[in-house]
Specification:
alpha+beta
Length: 75
């Protein structure tokens, strides 16, 4: 199923083919179940994309500089 989301972080619009049962997706969209209950067979990456539109690379790019500064911080 092709799912289009706008990244909650950057505002970039992306589409991704995700192997989701349309009935499960509709159940989640109705708000009656959590995403991990409706679609436990999806990877964390796919569920995150559905929820926020954020990709693993975007997470890495967004926080790598901040994490590096924390790791390199000297007391």
């Amino acid at each position: 199923m092709k799912i289009t989301r706008t990244s909650a972080f950057s505002g970039v619009v992306r589409s991704k083919d995700i192997p989701v049962n349309p009935a499960d997706y509709q159940e989640w969209e109705s708000g009656t179940v959590r995403i991990d209950e409706a679609m436990p067979y999806l990877s964390d990456v796919d569920r995150e994309f559905i929820l926020s539109g954020i990709t693993p690379q975007e997470w890495k790019n967004a926080f790598s500089a901040e994490i590096l500064s924390i790791v390199e911080d000297q007391l």
